[in-house]
Design brief:
Elements: E1 32-36, E2 42-47, E3 52-56, E4 62-63, E5 75-80, E6 83-88, E7 95-98, E8 103-104, E9 110-113, E10 116-122, H1 124-133, H2 137-144, E11 149-154, E12 160-166, E13 171-175, E14 181-182, E15 194-199, E16 202-207, E17 214-217, E18 221-223, E19 229-232, E20 235-240
């Protein structure tokens, strides 16, 4: 995977849809995927023809026959009303999109940071009760004597392990050597990598300017802004215009 060890950098910026013309006609954006090489440089570029492009090991417009981690047909990119979307066609192998903005976590979301992969779980009823009564997450957990939200480590086969990371405070941070939870042996995780915080009935995930990014696994189909990168198998593709 085309990631670099250590360091931190500023996350990519989101794109803008441009409107123009005397009659306010919409200028439909053209998208392309840049293949990021192992050294981090941009390799080949692939335009979406007629607003569509499929990626896979042996099927699709863009093929990576040597990548054993890819499904035969792994993902489909498409444009709808000026927005680029990616659809997971991998039958469980997974497609991940890098965060470039705050993301509201949903129960069951799979998050990847560095070489760590987690699944998010929450007790919706307990969170709703806490928000309605003005009770903090910490106090609610003390009352129930259990965590009402947590990350659970996931192994390479996609199965949950016994390693659990309760979200016991208003803000929980993650990093290689700075944070509530640290992973000193993970050279692909930045010193301060990401954070999760609680507001009302919801938990939010933000990248902390990490070098290699924080990724969320696509559920069926998801929007992908310009500047974001998509991981599938051992390939890293960056969206450009």
């Amino acid at each position: 995977m085309a990631w670099n060890e250590g360091g931190a950098t500023r996350p990519a910026a989101a794109h803008t849809v441009v409107l123009g013309g005397a009659k306010f006609s919409v200028v439909l954006p053209k998208f392309k995927l840049q293949h990021i090489k192992k050294d981090g440089s941009v390799g080949s570029e692939h335009e979406l023809k007629d607003g569509k492009l499929a990626v896979g090991k042996t099927e699709g417009d863009l093929k990576f026959a040597a990548d054993q981690q890819l499904a035969a047909l792994h993902a489909r990119f498409s444009v709808d009303r000026g927005q680029l979307f990616v659809e997971d066609a991998s039958q469980g192998k997974g497609v991940y999109v890098r965060l470039i903005a705050t993301y509201m976590l949903q129960d069951g979301d799979v998050v990847m940071m560095g070489r760590q992969t987690f699944r998010f779980h929450e007790k919706a009823e307990a969170l709703a009760h806490a928000a309605a009564t003005g009770t903090t997450v910490m106090n609610m957990q003390a009352m129930l004597n259990e965590s009402i939200a947590e990350f659970v480590a996931v192994n390479p086969q996609g199965k949950e392990t016994d390693n659990r990371f309760p979200l016991f405070d208003q803000e929980i941070t993650w990093g290689r050597n700075k944070g509530t939870y640290t992973f000193p042996e993970d050279g692909f995780m930045s010193g301060a990598h990401s954070k999760v915080y609680h507001r009302g009935e919801n938990f939010f995930l933000e990248d902390s300017g990490s070098r290699n990014g924080t990724f969320v696994k696509v559920r069926d189909k998801a929007p992908v802004p310009v500047g974001a990168t998509v991981v599938m198998g051992g390939q890293l593709l960056k969206v450009a215009q």
